[in-house]
Design a protein that fits this description.
This protein has helices at residues 25-53, 63-83, 89-102, 109-134. The chain has four helices and no strands.
């Protein structure tokens, strides 16, 4: 019998859960923010769809375009959450913040919502990076 803890058991019963160690504060803050932002963007897309559908005047976008755009934006936000372990994903986050602000051209309230989330994203990136750099035990992001 071996007392090894590396999961040498052939049945796999002795394997421990894969742990990547502590996550960076920047990544944790970004994950939380993107999770909330996904919910708000979904609700914003539903409101925009309702406004476009009941509009009496011709609108610059069709309801189908709102549905497709909303689904793509929500999917991009959810996908980005899974990619935050890579350092190249953070510029994509900045691009998504700009895209959400640009949705204000369809629904003007989204200018405010997008600017609010962009400000929170900026805060998370600055504060998270500062905390990660002051704590030497934090893991570095994968390049």
């Amino acid at each position: 019998m071996s007392l090894a803890t590396d999961g040498g058991d052939e049945s796999g019963a002795g394997r421990s859960r894969r742990s990547s160690g502590p996550r960076s504060v920047k990544r944790s803050l970004a994950t939380i923010l993107l999770g909330f932002e996904t919910i708000v963007v979904f609700l914003g897309a539903v409101v925009t769809l309702g406004l476009v559908s009941v509009a009496t005047e011709p609108t610059p976008v069709s309801p189908l375009a709102v549905i497709i755009g909303g689904v793509l934006l929500v999917a991009a936000l959810v996908g980005l959450i899974g990619l935050l372990r890579y350092s190249w994903s953070y510029p994509i986050g900045w691009a998504l913040q700009a895209t959400i602000i640009a949705t204000g051209f369809v629904t003007p309230a989204m200018f405010f919502v997008g600017a609010l989330f962009a400000a929170m994203w900026t805060y998370c990136m600055i504060t998270g990076s500062r905390i990660d750099h002051t704590n030497p035990d934090q893991p570095k992001e994968i390049a």
